[in-house]
Amino acid sequence: MSLAAALLLAGAAAPQVAPPTEVPRVTFDSRSLRIDGNPTLIWSSEFHPFRLPSPDLWRDILQKMKASGFNTVAIYIDWGFHSPKKGVYDFTGIRDVERVLTMAQEEGLYVITRAGPYVNAELSRGGFPGWLVNQPGKARTDDPEYLAAVDEWLDRINPIIARHQLGRGGSVILHQIENELALTTPAQGRYMQHLYDKARADGITVPMFHNDQGRNGYWVPKSSDVLLTVPGPQELYAFDGYPGGVCGVDNKPTRGAPAPDWGLYGPGGARGGASASPKTPGFIAEFGGGWFDYWGSNGMYPCNAIQRGSGYQRVFYGTNIANGIAIQSIYMGYGGTSWGWLPAPVVYTSYDYGSAIDEARNLRPKALELKQIGQFLQAVPDLARLEKAPPVTITGSDAVQVYHDRNPDTDARLLFVAPKPSNATGDARFTITADLPDGRYSFANELHGRDAKLLVAGVNLERQRLVYSTSELQTTIRHGAEDVALFYGRAGESGETVLRYTSAPKVTVVEGEVVNAFDAAKGDLRLTYTHNGLARVRIEGGGRAPLLLLIGDVAAGQSFFRQEALLERGPALVRRATVRGNTLDLTGDTETAAPLEVWGRVRAVRWNGQAVPVTHSVSGSLIARRPLPAPQALALPDLMAATWRYAEGSPEARTNFDDASWTVAGTARNVATIRPPTGQPNLGADSYGFHDGDVWYRGRFTGSPQAQTATIHYGAGGAGMLQLFLDGQLVGQHELAGGLPRPITTGVAEFALPREAQAPGEHVLAAMVRVNGHNWDLDVDDAHKEPRGLISVSLARPGGDSFAVPIAWKIQGRASGEELKDVARGPSNNGGLYGERMGWTLPGFPDGAWPSLKLADAKPYTGTSWYRTVFDLSVPKGEDATIGLQIGDPKTPRSPGRYRMLIFVNGWNMGQFVANVGPQRVFPIPDGILHHRGRNTLALAVTSDGAPGNAIEPVKLVTLHHVRGGVAVTDVAAPAYRDLYPTP
Ligand code: IPT
Hints:
Residues 1-18 form the signal peptide. It comes from Sphingomonas sanguinis. By secondary structure, the chain is mainly beta. Strands 4-5-6-7-8-9-10-11 form an eight-stranded parallel β-barrel. The structure holds 1-methylethyl 1-thio-beta-D-galactopyranoside.
C-alpha cells in the first residue's frame, strides 16, 4: 500500500504529494524511439500466430526472426478468430495470445501489437467476427452499436496486451489502434479517439500509433505541427508502403520503380525525419517484404520472394534507413497459412507471401541477407538517430548515388550507396570522396545489378575506431580482451578497411590475403584485400584492445549467427546460445552434416543437448572436431497404396431429406449491402448465424408451367460456387472467377429447369453455396456486409414475370451456427457440409461401414463425396519437418478436371484445392496438427458436378522442410469424434 493510501485509510488528510509516477520505459523524440532512454532502432517483421495453428511452432518462427537479425516482431490479432458469437470469446489453445507474447519476450524480441478492431490482412471480413456483419450501423465509425461491439473485444484484448508491456511482464513496446483507416471524417475522428481512450483506460501505456495507407498524413498526432487532416489521438504517426513492383502475369519479376524517399531525402526533408509528422520518428508500420497471391494465378509466391528478395532488401530497406526511418516493420516475416475459412476472397489457402521464412518454415535465401542487414543495424546503435550530412563527391560513374547521414550526437556516418535510379541494375565503378569525422578520404567501390551497400565511417565499434570501410560491417562482439569485427563484400571485389591507432599496431594475417600499411601521420591502418571466402587478421597494440578482423565474401558473412553476443557459424540455423559457467549450450538446425565454429569465452560446447568435442583455432574460436549430425532420411506412407473409405455426402439434395431441424429462411432482418427485390425473402446466410464455409438451402415449391428457368443471385467470395439440384438431380453448377485486383464475389446464375419442375405437386430445390470468405472493409464502405449464400432465387418462364413461383426456403450452415460445437478448432474450421455436420472430418469417426477403395479407383460424383483414410508417421525425435499434401501434378497450376476439395487433417480444415482455378496444389500441414509421431486421419471432401474427368487426382504426402533440430512440438489438443458426438 502506498503511503498516501495508508493515510487516507487512517482518515488523515492526504498530504499534497504528486502520485507516484512510473518512469515510462518507451519514449521517443523526433528521430527515434527510446527504450530506457536509449535511442533504439526498431527492426521488425510481421507474424500472424493465427496463421500457424500449432502454438509450439510460434517459438520456431520467433527464433528464426531473432536469428535473422530482427529485434522486434509485429503481430496482428484477429478479433473474429476469438469470437464466434457476440459476447463469446476464447483465448485458449491456438488462440492463446498471452502465450505468443510470453514466447516473444523469452526469445528476446520486442513486440508491436496490432489488435484491430479491424486488421484487413487478407482475412475474411478483414478480421471482424462473423456476427458483426449483422449490425446495421456503419463499421469503423462512432456508431454506438459498433462501438459497443468493439469495446467487447477491447475489454478482453487490451488487458492482455497491457500485462505484456515492457516492464510489466512482457516486451510490448508499441501498440496500433485501427488499420489503414483512410476515411478521416469527424465520425472517424471520434472513433479513433474512442479506441485510444479505451486502450489507455485498459492500461496500455506504451506509445500508440495508427498505420496510414501511404505517407498521406492521415491521423498525424495532435502534437504535430503539420495537420493535414483530422488529427489522430495517438502519439506516433506511421504509414505503410509496398513499393518495388509486383511480379508480372508471366510470373517473372518486374523492374518496379525506384525506392521512394520517405524521410530525410523526401519532399520537405530537412526537418526531423521529414515524415508527414515531423515531431515523431520516421515509422513504417508495414513495408512490403513480399505480396499475397490470388485464386487463379500461376503460383506467384516463388516470384514474389524474388521480387522482394535479395538486392531489393538492400536497396529498399537501406533507402528507408538512410531516410532516417527509425521504426520499420516488414510485412510479412512469416506469412503462414490461411487455413479453414480464414482467407478473404482475395487469397487462397497459402499465405506464404514470398516472405523470408516460407510457409513450410524454411529460411529462404533472402533471410540470410536480412540477417546481415539486421546484425549490422544492431551493431551500430548510432543508426537509430540520423540526419543529413554534407553531400559526398562521386567520380567515375553517373549511375550511382550516395546518401550521406550522420548521427547528431556521435557524428558517426552512414554512407548508403545505391544505383541511380535505385531500380537500375547495371554495373558501376566509382570513387567516393567524403569529409568524414576522421578526415577527408577518397575510396573506390562498385555496384553490380540490383544491389546497394550500407557503409559506415567515423564510428566507434566496441573498443575500435573505424575510419571507414568499403566493405559492409556485419557485426561485432567483445570477446574477452579482444574485439571481433566481421565485415563482408561481394565475392571477387576488392575492399579496404581503415582503422585508427595511436601508434603502429602489430598485424598478423591468420588466414587469407590481406595487405596492410600504417600511415603514422594520421594513425591510419589501411587493410586492403579481395573478398574471397573468409580472411582473418589479428591486430594488436597501437593503443587499443586487440581486434580479430574477419573479412568475408557475402556467403561467408551469411554463415555467421550472432546470438547472445557470441558468434557462431556452420549450421543452417542457430536458435539460441546460453552460457553456463564455461559451457556454451547451442540449439539449432542442420540440413546436412555441418561444421561448427564459435567465438565465445567458453571451454565446452553443447549442440542440441549433446557435448561437441572442440579444438581451439588460431583465431580464437572453438571448432567442432566432428561435423554436427544431419537429419535421417524420412519415409512417408504412400496414400495411393492406402485403403480409403468412401461416402456420398449431399443427401440434402434428395426430395425426402429430413430438414425438420433446419432454420426457416425469409424474415430475418437484412442489413447486407445487397438485398433481394422488395417482397422477396432474406436468404443471406449471415442473417441466420452461418458466417463461414458452405451453406445449404432447401426450397419447396408447387410445380408450375412458370417454373422453366431459375435465376439465382448469390454471394460466395473469390472462386466461390453454387450447385443447384431439383428433386435430387443436379440442375447445374456456377463458379465465380478469382483474380485481382478485386475478385468477383457475387454472381447471377441462370439455369434451365428440367420439365418436371412444371409437373403438379411439391418439388424441392436444393442449393449448396461454397462461401470463400467475406470481403474486407479496407475502404470503410461496409463491404464485409456483402451477403453470402443465396441473395434471391427467381423461377419464371423466359420473358415472364420474375419470382413467378413462390418458394418456401430453409437454411443450414455449420451445425449449431454461432454456438460452437468444436471450440478448440474454432469458428473458422467448419462450414455446413453434411459430412461436417455429422463429424466425418473427425478422428475416430466410425467409418467402418463405408465401402473401401483405392483412391485411383475414385469415380466422379455429383455433389460432395468424402474419402477418409488413416496413416502413421514416425518422424525421428529431435528432427523437425513440415509435411504437406500434394494433389495431382505439381508442375501445372490447374487441372483438366473441374472439382474442388476441402482437406481435413485430424479434423482441422487445412485448406481448399480448386482444380480448375488453382494455383495451389501443395498444402503444408504444420507439425502438431499433423501428428508426426502417431496416427493421422485424413478426410477429403470432393465437390464436383460428376462429369467424366471431374474426380479426385492422385494425392501424395511430401516433405517440404526437414532438419535435425527444431523446437519441441506437442500435438494440438482438439476433440475426437466421440468427444463431440457421444453415444447416448
Ligand atoms: C495493407 C494492410 O494493412 C494489411 O493488413 C494487408 O492487407 C496488406 O496491406 C497487404 O497484404 S493494405 C494496403 C496495401 C492498401
